[in-house]
Amino acid sequence: MLRCRPKLSFPSLKDQHLPLVSTTLSIAFLVLTVSDFPCLSNFVNKHLLTLILVFLTHIHISKHKGLCIEQSKLSASTGDPCYFYTTLDQPWRATNGSKMSICDNNFNWKGWYRLMYNGMNIRMPEICTTFYRCGTYITFWLNGSHPQISDGIITRQACGKAWNTDCCGWSVLMQVKACPGNYYVYEFIKPNICYAAYCSGTQIHSKSF
C-alpha cells in the first residue's frame, strides 16, 4: 500500500481546495462547450451526476502521483520490542549480588524487558551462575550466545542453578533480540519455581553488534 503526497499544480491553493476547484472548472468548461450542441447537451444534463463522480475519481487517483512512501515501511517498526519494552535497572540482579529472597515467580511478567545496571547497558550472563547470587537462591542464566541484530528474535533456554542441581536444574524457554544501540531485550517468562530470578551480568555491555 502506498501513501503519497500529491504534486500541486497551484502552490497558492491548499490541498483541501483542489478537488472543489478542479471539479467546478471542469463542469463549467463542459457545460459551456456542449451548449451549442443540443443532443450532447441533453446527454450531459442527464448524466451530470455520473460525470461529477468521474471527475472526482480522477482527482483522487491524481493525488497518488508524486512523492510516495511505502506504508509497510512506515509501520514496520510498530510493535518492535527494541522500542517497546520495560527497563529493569535492579542492581541486585547482578551476578555479584548478595543473597536475598527475590522470586521472579511473584512478578507479573508481560512483554519485553531491557536489563540495565545503574543506567548502563547490561545483559544476562552466558555462563553458569552459582546459587545464592542475583538476589535469590536459584539463578537463571542464558544457555547460549546472544543474537546479532541480523538474527532477529531468537529462542533461548534460560537455566537455573541451585546448590543440589547441575547448571540447568530448572529451565524455561524465552525470546531474545539484539537492538540498535548495543542492548538486548528479553521476553522473560514467569519461572515455575521459587526462589528464583533472572540474572544480569556485571560487565557493562558496550560492544557493537
Number of helices: 4
Give average pLDDT, whole number: 75
Shape: elongated
Strand content: 25-35%
Order of helices and strands: EHHHEHEEEEEEEE
Instruction: Count every beta strand, where a strand is a DSSP E run of 2 or more residues.
Output: 10
| Backbone structural class | alpha+beta
Could you state the oligomeric state of the chains shown?
A: single chain
What is the CA-based Rg, rounded? 32 Å
Please report the distance between the alpha carbons of the first and last residues. 32 Å
Q: Could you describe the largest sheet, including whether it forms a barrel?
A: 5 strands, mixed
Strand order of the largest sheet: 9-8-7-6-10
- Percentage of residues in helical conformation: 10-25%
Number of domains: 2
Low-confidence stretches: 1-21, 53-77
Q: What are the SSEs and their pairings?
A:
Blueprint (H helix, E strand, L loop, with lengths): L1 E5 L11 H17 L3 H9 L1 H15 L3 E5 H4 L11 E4 L23 E5 L2 E2 L16 E6 L9 E9 L8 E10 L3 E5 L8 E3 L11
Parallel strand pairs: 3-4, 6-10
Antiparallel strand pairs: 1-2, 4-5, 6-7, 7-8, 8-9
Give an account of the 3D structure.
The structure is a single chain. The chain is of the alpha+beta class and 209 residues long. It has two domains: 2-74, no CATH class; 86-198, no CATH class. It is built from four helices and ten strands, in the order E-H-H-H-E-H-E-E-E-E-E-E-E-E. The strands form three sheets. It has a five-stranded mixed sheet, with no helix packed on it. Strands 3-4-5 form a three-stranded mixed sheet, with no helix packed on it. Strands 1-2 form a two-stranded antiparallel sheet. Helix 1 (18-34) crosses helix 3 (48-62). The model is unreliable at 1-21 and 53-77 (pLDDT under 50).
